[in-house]
TrEMBL record:
Its cofactor is Zn(2+); Ca(2+). One of its GO terms (cellular component) is extracellular region. The gene is colA. Residues 1-65 form the Peptidase M9 collagenase N-terminal domain. This is microbial collagenase. InterPro entries: Peptidase_M9_N_dom, Peptidase_M9A/M9B.
Length: 308
């Protein structure tokens, strides 16, 4: 654990201070060791946290340098064409074949993300581009890794593969929404809509609907107003999006563009609440408890104070 602490501290130091190409390239031994022992290290929090902070620190510092560089161009930084050894190791973590499992998926996901962001430091960025393409070929269509790789091509390579062909990321996102949110329920003449994963039961969805009625009745008794502040807003229709699990919910960051570092979130400007089904081990709040809380935010923004 002491060694892991040193690696983690190095990553944090690089992210908060600086590093030259030599220091960054010497980090390849840490990445190689982790990959060589991935069956043993994948579920080890201490080692995983160390490697994550190392990758994060290097990415943060190298990219932050660009903002203080002439023309905001990676070619004008000291890292351009000088950290290929590190990039090769990073790219190798994008595809680990049949070793991928729930314990080490985080490593692949982050390797894909950082490969996309740091490919611009290569003299030939298409090398990083091809690493993302290989991931799209290796992992199942619409798996998290497939969607992450596609997202990184979209963000960093104009949505094209190394042959210059469009990957049609909008179609991928649409297919993902259909796969992970196949069920739609409509209540109150279309004013309350639920889109849910296939494992979210109809009984659970109906309970949420009746919970909304209960919360609204209590809320109206307090505020004494049932007239919306503004008509014609997106919140005229409340949409509730429920993923099957916390893991699937993470995809919402990519396919809908909202933070998933939470138990659920209400986005007022589109009148939509995003969340996920959970077990007692995954959250101290039940789905209904969280829904009641966020539904109150919806009511506050609609009937009392805009922006709540």
């Amino acid at each position: 654990k002491a060694q892991d602490g040193v690696v983690e501290a190095l990553g944090r130091l690089i992210g908060n201070a600086s590093a030259d190409p030599e220091v960054i390239n010497n980090c390849i031994y840490v990445l190689s060791d982790f990959k060589d022992n991935i069956d043993k290290y994948g579920s080890n929090y201490s080692k995983g946290n160390a490697v994550f902070n190392l990758m994060k620190g290097i990415d943060y510092y190298t990219n932050s340098v660009i903002y203080n560089t002439n023309g905001y161009d990676a070619k004008n930084t000291e890292f351009y064409n000088r950290i290929d050894p590190y990039m090769e190791r990073l790219e190798s973590l994008c595809t680990i074949g049949d070793k991928l499992n729930n314990d080490n998926a985080w490593l692949v996901n982050n390797a894909l993300y950082y490969t996309g962001r740091m490919g611009k430091f290569r003299e030939d960025p298409s090398i990083s581009q091809r690493a993302l393409e290989r991931a799209m070929k290796e992992y199942p269509y619409l798996s998290y890794q497939y969607i992450e790789a596609a997202n990184d091509l979209d963000l960093n390579f104009s949505g094209k593969n190394s042959s210059g062909n469009d990957i049609d990321f909008n179609k991928i996102k649409a297919d993902a929404r259909e796969k992970y949110l196949p069920k739609t329920y409509t209540f109150d003449d279309g004013k309350f809509v639920v889109k849910a994963g296939e494992k979210v039961t109809e009984e659970k969805i109906k309970r949420l609907y009746w919970a909304s009625k209960e919360v609204k009745a209590q809320f109206m008794r307090v505020v004494q107003n049932d007239k919306a502040l503004e008509e014609g807003n997106p919140d005229d229709i409340l949409t509730v999006v429920i993923y099957n699990s916390p893991e699937e919910y993470k995809l919402n960051r990519i396919i809908n563009g909202f933070s998933t570092d939470n138990g659920g979130i209400y986005i007022e400007n589109i009148g939509t609440f995003f969340t996920y089904e959970r077990t007692p081990e995954e959250s101290i709040y039940t789905l209904e408890e969280l829904f009641r809380h966020e539904f109150t935010h919806y009511l506050q923004g609609r009937y009392v104070v805009p922006g709540m």
